[in-house]
Design goal:
The chain has 108 residues and is α+β, with helices and mostly antiparallel strands. It contains two helices and four strands, in the order H-H-E-E-E-E. It has helices at 2-36, 50-59, and strands at residues 62-70, 73-80, 85-90, 97-103. The protein has a four-stranded antiparallel beta sheet with strand order 1-2-3-4, covered by helices on one side. A hairpin with a 2-residue loop joins strand 1 and strand 2. It is elongated and about 75 Å long. Residues 24-100 form the PepSY domain. It holds the Pfam family PepSY_2. This is PepSY domain-containing protein.
Length: 108
């Protein structure tokens, strides 16, 4: 009888450790995919100031409503005199547009 109980405890430990390993694997995969969702992977030390991006956009005819950081990028909301609007993400180091959406009045 003693052996029967000991085998059951060992089996429970194996199931628990397998379950724990599975949970750990899922957590690691979720963390990896969350990091992969970032649009920009630029070290903070390489970011240009927001004001530089604001001046660049103003020179292109945009009135900037906001510039904020989002997923490692600069996210911009702006309008132009033709009534167009801009919602775009910019690489914070190169200030190149990576993703954008526009509503009316634009030539892009």
């Amino acid at each position: 009888m003693l052996l029967l109980g000991a085998g059951r405890v060992a089996g429970e430990r194996k199931v628990k450790s397998t379950w724990f390993a599975g949970c750990l694997l899922v957590a690691c995969l979720a963390a990896g995919s969350a990091a992969a969702d970032r649009d920009c992977n630029v070290p903070l030390a390489d970011w240009q100031p927001r004001d530089v991006l604001r001046k660049k956009l103003e020179a292109e005819g945009w009135t900037v409503q906001s510039i904020r950081s989002d997923d490692g990028c600069y996210k911009v909301l702006a309008t132009n005199v033709q009534g167009g609007s801009l919602k775009a993400k910019y690489d914070p180091a190169s200030l190149e547009r990576i993703r954008h959406g526009r509503d009316g009045g634009g030539d892009d």
